[in-house]
TrEMBL record:
NCBIfam families: PRK05457.1. The keyword Lipid metabolism does not apply. It is an enzyme of class 3 (hydrolase). Binds 1 zinc ion per subunit. It comes from Nautilia profundicola (strain ATCC BAA-1463 / DSM 18972 / AmH). One of its GO terms (biological process) is proteolysis. Its cofactor is Zn(2+). This is Protease HtpX homolog.
């Protein structure tokens, strides 16, 4: 399942924040009353957006750790020098700050991440140089730079925060209504937590589907951005080559799939089918006067 680890990390952060709020209430008496709509909504907002924002600010560090990225401080060969220079050129054309540039060992793929457009990371697998010509790799880099230019990491984070808030709020609101109550009308705390947890898991499935739909939409936009930055040839033929490789052989670590160049093709996928992306690139190219 696409970005399973990213979702799990987000849920873990949410759980830790909720536990912290619980401990603050228990030891310091600072309390948000979940029995009121306003109190529950404020708590849901804090937990939901805190989890998403912490995940965003940790994104570069997590990417480096999970994918084993080696940031290029000083190029050690011609390929690394070309990579840094090409990213610098595309970043300047896109009007963003120079991202960190890194490489990692693994199947052909690439990704971009970071908390803002002027403090990002672009990383490519070393095997990409074995599979593609330099102009095709440049098309891949243009795609990743387009993600950064359009602030896709921020928009995905904001969407995740809204979805987190919705899941937390609705699950607890329904739990308050249907959980068993004693003679004085007090909700059973164990039943309340069990019901709200079960509802969170169920609603998280639908929230993930919505997040992945939005991610697929942003992939089309990033492909179009690559065409505007670098022309259609590079990204088109790069994707065509990647489309010939079995899906499991181009998979990034689960927590990075949303920002890669290719992903799995199902309702929980962060990427559309490559065939549809190629058709979209041809459409954008024709609109811009290219012949492809």
């Amino acid at each position: 399942m696409a970005i399973v680890m990213l979702i799990l990390m987000n849920l873990a952060v949410m759980a830790s924040i909720y536990l912290t709020i619980f401990l603050i209430e228990a030891f310091f008496g600072v309390r948000l009353d979940q029995g009121t709509i306003s109190g529950l909504l404020i708590l849901s907002f804090i937990v939901g957006f805190s989890g998403a924002l912490i995940s965003l600010f940790m994104s570069k560090w997590l990417a480096k750790m999970s994918a084993g990225v080696r940031v290029i401080e000083t190029p050690s060969n011609e390929a690394e020098a070309w990579l840094v220079n090409t990213v610098a050129k595309l970043a300047k054309e896109a009007g963003i700050g120079m991202p960190e540039v890194g490489v990692f060992d693994g199947p052909p793929n690439a990704f971009a991440t970071g908390w803002n457009r002027n403090d990002a990371l672009v990383a490519v697998s070393t095997s990409l140089f074995d599979l593609m010509e330099l102009d095709e790799i440049e098309g891949v880099l243009a795609h990743e730079i387009s993600h950064i230019k359009h602030g896709d990491m921020i928009t995905m984070t904001l969407l995740q925060g809204v979805l987190n808030t919705f899941v937390f709020f609705i699950s607890r609101l329904i739990a308050q209504i249907i959980a068993p109550k004693d003679e004085e009308g007090n909700v059973s705390p164990f039943a309340y937590m069990a019901i709200s947890f079960a509802l969170e898991m169920l609603l998280s499935i639908f929230a993930t589907m919505l997040a992945m739909w939005f991610s697929r939409y942003r992939e089309y936009k990033a492909d179009a951005g690559a065409v505007r930055l670098d022309g259609p040839q590079g990204i088109y033929y790069a994707l065509a080559k990647l489309g010939q490789i079995p899906k499991d052989q181009v998979a990034l670590p689960s927590d990075m799939k949303a920002f890669g160049i290719v992903g799995f093709l199902d309702l929980f996928s962060s990427h559309p089918p490559i065939e549809k992306r190629l058709e979209n690139i041809k459409k954008v190219a024709r609109e811009m006067g290219y012949n492809i």
